[in-house]
Amino acid sequence: MENIYDIRKQKRLQFALSAEHSSYVLNEEQMQSTAVVANLYYTEKAEYYSQYLNGLPKNIVLYIFSSKEDTLEEVKKYVSHEKTVYLKKENRGRDLSALLVAFRPYADQYNLICFVHDKKERAPWLKADVDKWNENLWGNMIASSHYIYNVLQLFEKRPELGMLFPPEPIGEIRMAWFKASWYDNFNNCLELAEKMHLKADIRKEKPPIALGSVFWARKEVLMKLLNTEWQYKDFPEEPMPEDYTISHAIERIIGYLAQDAGYDAGTVMTEEYASWLLLYLQDYVRLMFSQVSNQIGVENFNQLRLLNMQEKNILRYIESHDAFFLYGAGKQGMILLKLLRERNIEPAGFLVSDGNKNREVIEGIKVYELKDIDPKGMGIILTVYYHLQKEMIRELEKHGIDDFFLVFDDKCGWDMVEQAKENKD
Fold first, then answer.
1. pLDDT at residue 264 tops 90
2. Its pTM surpasses 0.85
3. How far is the C-alpha of 214 from the C-alpha of 115, rounded, in Å?
């Protein structure tokens, strides 16, 4: 069984849809079998979220839940959607209790369910990121009636598609795109998956694609979660801890519900958000790679990935010898030297072929010709690319040296080629 993070990539389950126009027309049955469920808490944000809620197709049912009577009254001032149901819930469990406790009696009426909720920054320096996250969560779920038509058409055209999420959040502080976003919640996610008997591939090294508990879903996908018969007391009292609660586990496990039910899970966004995201990531990656290049000298992702693939093997080889030399003092040798120095590892010297020494010291490391060293107990690491390796190996053989390590060996290179082919397919 494959992980949903990899499946999304392989099947290209990331969609950019228009919020401006749609050729798809819903019939009455489709409209009546679709519900949008919103949990709102922050009274002062009622007008902001109403701009999205007022853009729903007129015959789709909207459920608005809140634990605050003031918020419900404020929302009513701004929401003009005709088919709206306002319901009060307990102030426990936040958005997830709205979905799993308060909305559960109504869920069986609908084939497709969209769930959204409000967010507010916990500190002033998070405001810009949270504002963008709100745009991500709401805009990429219910940007407009045309957009919702396009989302529903996507579900109709792809019967294997069970859930759609907004893209993982990204910002100046939030880094969900660049690391596994389990935080301290991997173990409680596993516990919840076992409790629910989920058949899904859940691995710590693969990040969850569901963050924020906002989604579009087929009812069948949600049934295991809804049939658990949650109660308000199952959720922590306020103030809820920032991590490692049942709510944090549910939030991340939602994507695996689709796999358990036999469906795919993907990501959807507006064309406008996709344009912003591509430009933002391009600038972000450029900045990050510039820093990586300055620190360890790598110039492209091929070099970075090769070094990453070989790192454990390099360290294992070094540990098995009394000392080691770097054979090759060119650009790749400098990259490896920087990488090793980051780990406080220092070579015994640089090696060059006999007659090729034109410097005594490089980067504080003494340079030796092959004829000048006693290779007994010494490791030799070839730092050059493939086209230079054959000649250097012949030089080693002339000196009776057969104990050496290739950083950029043919097998490693072909592994990358095959991986690239698989990713393309």
1. yes
2. no
3. 5
